[in-house]
Amino acid sequence: MALSVGSARVCFVDELVERVDCQDRVLGVVTRRQAIREGWLHRIASTVCRDERGRILVHRRSEQLSRFPGLYEVVVGGAVDVGESYGQAAARELAEELGIRGLPRLLFTFINRSGLSPHWLGVHEAVVPDAVAPDPDEVAWHGWLTESELHSALLEWRFTPDSHEAFSQYLAFRTAQS
Fold first, then answer.
1. Whether the model pTM is above 0.85
2. Which residue, 123, 60, 58, 112, is CA-closest to 90?
3. Which residues contact 108 (CB under 8 A, 6 or more apart)?
4. Residues with Cβ < 8 Å from 149, sequence gap 6 or more?
């Protein structure tokens, strides 16, 4: 099955996720394909990666990925597996995509209505080394951008829908914490 979102063609691979309600309480186990097709809430964990200088890691997704191939992302992340916490999922995704071991810090969760379907998005932050080792099956390119450079890139490059929403919420969170 394929779906077009904007100019991105998306193919689905089944994985099990927990369907949750608007209070993020588990209702049952479904396939991610079913959650997306039915518009059911499920959980996604994402991490904004910063280096010691405060730059943000941006990457372009591999062309072989089933969701949003070739688009840029501000966050590293993916679906929260059945029985997994947001933090566990974020740590697993960092290891899978960037070869980084560690537990990112959960900043907040919110219902994200951008992208393929509505979902709870757990936004984490991690300070990571400049030299990451991305999995070429997941990441085609990566680079470090200042917030100013990232603002420009968000207007010029093709980013995933989650990237725009997650980064906007992330900046609002940081501003509120200052």
1. yes
2. 123
3. 122, 123, 169, 173
4. none
CA geometry: angle at 126 spanning 124 and 129, to 5°? 155
Mean pLDDT value of segment 131-146: 93
In this structure, the chain runs to a length of 178
pLDDT (mean) for 101-117: 92
Q: Is the dihedral of CA 168, 171, 177, 178 positive or negative?
A: negative
Structure tokens at 123: 């936004």
Amino acid letter, 39: G
Q: How far apart are CA 137 and CA 167, in angstroms?
A: 24
Lookup result for tokens 């077009």: 4
Q: Which strand (E) or helix (H) includes residue 87?
A: helix 86-98
Contact by Cβ (8 Å): 49, 124 = no
pLDDT in tens, 14-25: 789 999 999 999
